[in-house]
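Sample pair:
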Amino acid sequence: MTHDTGLRLRREAWGFAIGSLFFMVGAVPWYATAVGPVLDAATFFVGALFFTAAAGIQLALSGRKPPRRDTDRPNVFDWWAAAVQFVGTLFFNVSTTEALIVAIQSPGDSGGWRPDALGSIAFLVASAFAVVATTERDRLWDPLARTWQCTWLNMAGSVFFGISAIGAYVIPETGNLVNELWANAGTFLGGVCFLVAALLSRPAPQPATTTASRTAATT
């Protein structure tokens, strides 16, 4: 693994970690009550930006274009996992922006943000692709892929976000959520899973290569 790749992987991991932390904080009811609907919505909005930035790095590391036909299956599924997850973060960008606009314009009518259906489905699909990629590899560790622990933590986080999206569905007849506890707890627990996975995925810092060592390596 080159120094540049390691640096980008660390940026990716920290992007997901910081984004997850913002989602966790935003989902805590006491925080939302303390700061008000606008700042709470802004918390999710910022978290989604970090998610998208990290997902963009992950997709770039996997390859900006779809893999060729002769690419091995794990790398193909890795690419699709990164691509679908990036799309999912864009859905979250849209929904968090909409929630922030509503909170600014009508603070009293703002119900807060919770994972939307399209973003949650994309995360679930991406996690499924990642599971296939991980289980089909001959080795469990690959500098450009997730470890199996991170893969399953991300799957758990995606499931929790899906539960949150179901709980946050507004029943048309009553205007109430299906289950507010599911909405809050699903977002928080999903954020916890994503945070732990991101921290575990950080590559070890690469020692800086000195001029002397480079010279010695070429002689």
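The radius of gyration is 19 Å.
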